[in-house]
Amino acid sequence: MEILGYIAAVLIGVSLGLIGAGGSILTIPVLVYLLGIAPVNATSYSLFIVGISAFIGGLRYLKNNLICLKTVIVFGIPSVLSIFLTRKYLLHRIPDHLFNIGSFEITKDAALMLLLAILMVVASFTMIRKQKILRSDERSNNFEYRYFLIFQQGIIVGALVGLVGAGGGFLIIPALVMLAKLPMKSAIGTSLAIVALNSSIGFLSDFGTHEFNWGFLILFTSLAIVGIMIGSYLSKFISGTKLKPVFGWFILVMGTYIITKELFFPGV
Question: What span, in angstroms and rounded, lies between the C-alpha atoms of 185 and 151?
Protein backbone atom coordinates (compact mmCIF):
# COMPACT_ATOMS: atom_id res chain seq x y z
CA MET A 1 0.00 0.00 0.00
CA GLU A 2 2.89 2.34 0.79
CA ILE A 3 4.42 1.74 -2.63
CA LEU A 4 1.04 2.45 -4.24
CA GLY A 5 0.89 5.69 -2.23
CA TYR A 6 4.19 6.90 -3.62
CA ILE A 7 3.21 5.90 -7.16
CA ALA A 8 0.00 7.89 -6.64
CA ALA A 9 2.12 10.92 -5.65
CA VAL A 10 3.73 10.85 -9.10
CA LEU A 11 0.34 10.43 -10.80
CA ILE A 12 -1.06 13.41 -8.85
CA GLY A 13 1.80 15.50 -10.22
CA VAL A 14 1.24 14.18 -13.74
CA SER A 15 -2.42 15.22 -13.60
CA LEU A 16 -1.43 18.71 -12.42
CA GLY A 17 1.11 19.01 -15.22
CA LEU A 18 -1.35 17.82 -17.86
CA ILE A 19 -4.61 19.42 -16.72
CA GLY A 20 -3.46 22.23 -14.42
CA ALA A 21 -5.99 21.51 -11.65
CA GLY A 22 -7.89 18.77 -9.90
CA GLY A 23 -5.06 16.38 -9.07
CA SER A 24 -4.47 17.84 -5.64
CA ILE A 25 -7.92 16.75 -4.45
CA LEU A 26 -6.67 13.16 -4.59
CA THR A 27 -3.88 13.90 -2.12
CA ILE A 28 -6.05 13.41 0.98
CA PRO A 29 -7.48 10.01 -0.07
CA VAL A 30 -3.96 8.81 -0.93
CA LEU A 31 -2.59 9.95 2.42
CA VAL A 32 -5.50 8.50 4.41
CA TYR A 33 -6.34 5.25 2.62
CA LEU A 34 -2.98 4.21 1.15
CA LEU A 35 -0.51 5.65 3.66
CA GLY A 36 -2.58 5.40 6.85
CA ILE A 37 -2.35 9.03 7.97
CA ALA A 38 -5.16 10.35 10.19
CA PRO A 39 -7.52 12.69 8.27
CA VAL A 40 -6.81 15.84 10.33
CA ASN A 41 -3.05 15.35 10.01
CA ALA A 42 -3.52 14.51 6.34
CA THR A 43 -5.09 17.93 5.75
CA SER A 44 -1.90 19.57 7.05
CA TYR A 45 0.34 17.32 4.96
CA SER A 46 -1.82 17.96 1.92
CA LEU A 47 -1.51 21.74 2.29
CA PHE A 48 2.29 21.45 2.18
CA ILE A 49 2.28 19.06 -0.78
CA VAL A 50 -0.35 21.00 -2.72
CA GLY A 51 1.30 24.36 -1.98
CA ILE A 52 4.70 23.33 -3.29
CA SER A 53 3.20 21.51 -6.27
CA ALA A 54 1.01 24.49 -7.22
CA PHE A 55 4.01 26.83 -6.94
CA ILE A 56 6.11 24.64 -9.24
CA GLY A 57 3.24 24.17 -11.65
CA GLY A 58 2.51 27.91 -11.70
CA LEU A 59 6.05 28.90 -12.74
CA ARG A 60 5.35 27.97 -16.36
CA TYR A 61 2.23 30.19 -16.36
CA LEU A 62 4.15 33.04 -14.71
CA LYS A 63 6.84 32.78 -17.38
CA ASN A 64 4.17 33.05 -20.08
CA ASN A 65 2.47 36.02 -18.32
CA LEU A 66 -0.70 34.01 -17.68
CA ILE A 67 -1.26 35.04 -14.04
CA CYS A 68 -3.61 37.96 -13.32
CA LEU A 69 -2.07 39.73 -10.32
CA LYS A 70 -5.19 41.82 -9.61
CA THR A 71 -7.31 38.70 -9.31
CA VAL A 72 -4.71 36.99 -7.12
CA ILE A 73 -5.02 39.93 -4.71
CA VAL A 74 -8.83 40.32 -4.83
CA PHE A 75 -9.46 36.58 -4.48
CA GLY A 76 -6.37 35.72 -2.45
CA ILE A 77 -6.64 38.17 0.47
CA PRO A 78 -10.07 37.02 1.74
CA SER A 79 -9.17 33.43 0.95
CA VAL A 80 -5.94 33.59 2.98
CA LEU A 81 -7.73 35.18 5.94
CA SER A 82 -10.48 32.59 5.78
CA ILE A 83 -8.13 29.61 5.63
CA PHE A 84 -5.98 30.98 8.46
CA LEU A 85 -8.97 31.50 10.77
CA THR A 86 -10.42 28.11 9.86
CA ARG A 87 -7.17 26.22 10.52
CA LYS A 88 -6.19 28.20 13.62
CA TYR A 89 -9.49 28.57 15.46
CA LEU A 90 -12.19 26.31 13.97
CA LEU A 91 -10.76 22.97 12.83
CA HIS A 92 -9.17 21.99 16.14
CA ARG A 93 -12.27 22.96 18.15
CA ILE A 94 -14.52 20.53 16.31
CA PRO A 95 -15.21 17.61 18.72
CA ASP A 96 -14.07 14.12 17.75
CA HIS A 97 -17.64 12.81 18.13
CA LEU A 98 -20.30 14.85 16.32
CA PHE A 99 -23.57 12.91 16.32
CA ASN A 100 -25.21 9.57 15.58
CA ILE A 101 -27.52 8.61 12.72
CA GLY A 102 -29.21 5.49 14.03
CA SER A 103 -26.37 3.07 14.72
CA PHE A 104 -23.89 5.11 12.66
CA GLU A 105 -21.50 7.36 14.54
CA ILE A 106 -20.37 10.45 12.66
CA THR A 107 -16.92 11.44 13.87
CA LYS A 108 -14.81 14.47 13.04
CA ASP A 109 -12.56 12.39 10.78
CA ALA A 110 -15.54 10.88 8.96
CA ALA A 111 -17.16 14.31 8.53
CA LEU A 112 -13.98 15.74 6.99
CA MET A 113 -13.71 12.82 4.58
CA LEU A 114 -17.41 13.13 3.65
CA LEU A 115 -17.00 16.87 3.01
CA LEU A 116 -13.98 16.10 0.84
CA ALA A 117 -15.97 13.45 -1.04
CA ILE A 118 -18.78 15.92 -1.73
CA LEU A 119 -16.24 18.42 -3.06
CA MET A 120 -14.77 15.65 -5.24
CA VAL A 121 -18.20 14.98 -6.74
CA VAL A 122 -18.61 18.72 -7.43
CA ALA A 123 -15.11 18.82 -8.93
CA SER A 124 -15.87 15.86 -11.17
CA PHE A 125 -18.84 17.62 -12.75
CA THR A 126 -16.82 20.78 -13.41
CA MET A 127 -14.31 18.59 -15.26
CA ILE A 128 -16.79 16.40 -17.11
CA ARG A 129 -18.96 19.17 -18.50
CA LYS A 130 -17.72 21.28 -21.38
CA GLN A 131 -16.75 24.81 -20.42
CA LYS A 132 -16.60 27.78 -22.73
CA ILE A 133 -13.01 28.87 -23.29
CA LEU A 134 -12.78 32.63 -23.44
CA ARG A 135 -10.37 34.36 -25.80
CA SER A 136 -8.82 37.67 -24.87
CA ASP A 137 -10.94 39.43 -27.49
CA GLU A 138 -14.24 38.03 -26.14
CA ARG A 139 -14.52 40.45 -23.23
CA SER A 140 -17.30 42.94 -23.61
CA ASN A 141 -16.37 46.61 -23.46
CA ASN A 142 -19.05 46.89 -20.78
CA PHE A 143 -17.59 44.02 -18.74
CA GLU A 144 -17.75 44.73 -15.01
CA TYR A 145 -15.10 43.15 -12.80
CA ARG A 146 -17.15 41.66 -9.96
CA TYR A 147 -15.00 42.59 -6.98
CA PHE A 148 -17.54 41.71 -4.28
CA LEU A 149 -18.49 38.32 -5.72
CA ILE A 150 -14.83 37.39 -6.24
CA PHE A 151 -14.06 38.53 -2.67
CA GLN A 152 -17.01 36.50 -1.37
CA GLN A 153 -15.95 33.42 -3.33
CA GLY A 154 -12.47 33.77 -1.83
CA ILE A 155 -13.91 33.56 1.69
CA ILE A 156 -15.92 30.42 0.87
CA VAL A 157 -13.05 28.64 -0.87
CA GLY A 158 -10.66 29.56 1.95
CA ALA A 159 -12.96 28.00 4.55
CA LEU A 160 -13.34 24.80 2.52
CA VAL A 161 -9.60 24.55 1.89
CA GLY A 162 -8.99 25.13 5.58
CA LEU A 163 -11.27 22.25 6.52
CA VAL A 164 -10.28 19.59 4.00
CA GLY A 165 -6.77 20.62 2.95
CA ALA A 166 -7.46 20.37 -0.80
CA GLY A 167 -6.17 23.07 -3.10
CA GLY A 168 -9.57 24.19 -4.35
CA GLY A 169 -8.47 24.83 -7.93
CA PHE A 170 -11.59 23.08 -9.23
CA LEU A 171 -13.68 25.73 -7.41
CA ILE A 172 -11.41 28.67 -8.16
CA ILE A 173 -11.08 28.21 -11.93
CA PRO A 174 -14.84 28.33 -12.74
CA ALA A 175 -15.16 31.41 -10.49
CA LEU A 176 -12.33 33.19 -12.31
CA VAL A 177 -13.79 32.35 -15.71
CA MET A 178 -17.33 33.46 -14.78
CA LEU A 179 -16.65 36.42 -12.47
CA ALA A 180 -13.31 37.78 -13.70
CA LYS A 181 -13.86 36.65 -17.31
CA LEU A 182 -10.31 35.31 -17.52
CA PRO A 183 -9.40 33.12 -20.51
CA MET A 184 -8.99 29.49 -19.44
CA LYS A 185 -5.19 29.43 -19.49
CA SER A 186 -5.02 32.63 -17.42
CA ALA A 187 -7.63 31.23 -15.03
CA ILE A 188 -5.52 28.09 -14.51
CA GLY A 189 -2.32 30.08 -13.94
CA THR A 190 -4.04 32.52 -11.58
CA SER A 191 -5.66 29.61 -9.75
CA LEU A 192 -2.28 27.93 -9.21
CA ALA A 193 -0.92 31.15 -7.73
CA ILE A 194 -3.91 31.42 -5.36
CA VAL A 195 -3.66 27.74 -4.39
CA ALA A 196 0.06 28.09 -3.64
CA LEU A 197 -0.65 31.14 -1.46
CA ASN A 198 -3.61 29.57 0.34
CA SER A 199 -1.88 26.27 0.99
CA SER A 200 1.27 27.94 2.32
CA ILE A 201 -0.67 30.07 4.80
CA GLY A 202 -2.83 27.12 5.81
CA PHE A 203 0.21 24.95 6.47
CA LEU A 204 2.04 27.66 8.41
CA SER A 205 -1.03 28.20 10.60
CA ASP A 206 -0.72 24.57 11.76
CA PHE A 207 2.66 25.05 13.42
CA GLY A 208 2.36 24.35 17.12
CA THR A 209 -0.68 22.12 16.67
CA HIS A 210 0.83 19.29 14.59
CA GLU A 211 4.04 17.31 14.47
CA PHE A 212 5.35 16.81 10.95
CA ASN A 213 7.31 13.95 9.42
CA TRP A 214 9.54 16.13 7.27
CA GLY A 215 11.29 13.20 5.60
CA PHE A 216 7.98 11.81 4.38
CA LEU A 217 6.70 15.24 3.33
CA ILE A 218 9.81 16.01 1.29
CA LEU A 219 9.80 12.56 -0.37
CA PHE A 220 6.09 12.68 -1.28
CA THR A 221 6.33 16.26 -2.53
CA SER A 222 9.44 15.49 -4.57
CA LEU A 223 7.63 12.62 -6.28
CA ALA A 224 4.69 14.93 -7.04
CA ILE A 225 7.09 17.49 -8.56
CA VAL A 226 8.63 14.75 -10.73
CA GLY A 227 5.09 13.96 -11.84
CA ILE A 228 4.45 17.62 -12.69
CA MET A 229 7.55 17.67 -14.89
CA ILE A 230 6.43 14.48 -16.62
CA GLY A 231 2.92 15.88 -17.08
CA SER A 232 4.24 19.19 -18.43
CA TYR A 233 6.34 17.30 -20.98
CA LEU A 234 3.43 15.04 -21.98
CA SER A 235 1.18 18.10 -22.37
CA LYS A 236 3.13 18.92 -25.54
CA PHE A 237 1.75 15.73 -27.12
CA ILE A 238 -1.49 15.04 -25.21
CA SER A 239 -4.45 17.41 -24.96
CA GLY A 240 -5.23 18.16 -21.32
CA THR A 241 -8.68 19.33 -22.41
CA LYS A 242 -9.51 15.88 -23.78
CA LEU A 243 -8.16 14.12 -20.68
CA LYS A 244 -10.07 16.33 -18.25
CA PRO A 245 -13.47 14.55 -18.56
CA VAL A 246 -11.77 11.16 -18.12
CA PHE A 247 -10.07 12.40 -14.97
CA GLY A 248 -13.39 13.88 -13.86
CA TRP A 249 -15.07 10.47 -14.06
CA PHE A 250 -12.21 8.97 -12.02
CA ILE A 251 -12.66 11.60 -9.30
CA LEU A 252 -16.43 10.95 -9.33
CA VAL A 253 -15.81 7.24 -8.71
CA MET A 254 -13.34 8.04 -5.92
CA GLY A 255 -15.75 10.49 -4.27
CA THR A 256 -18.55 7.94 -4.40
CA TYR A 257 -16.25 5.31 -2.91
CA ILE A 258 -15.32 7.59 0.02
CA ILE A 259 -18.99 8.39 0.76
CA THR A 260 -19.89 4.69 0.68
CA LYS A 261 -16.94 3.67 2.83
CA GLU A 262 -17.35 6.35 5.50
CA LEU A 263 -21.11 5.88 5.82
CA PHE A 264 -21.46 2.11 5.53
CA PHE A 265 -18.00 0.60 6.17
CA PRO A 266 -16.28 2.88 8.72
CA GLY A 267 -13.04 1.58 10.14
CA VAL A 268 -12.60 -1.01 7.37
Answer: 21
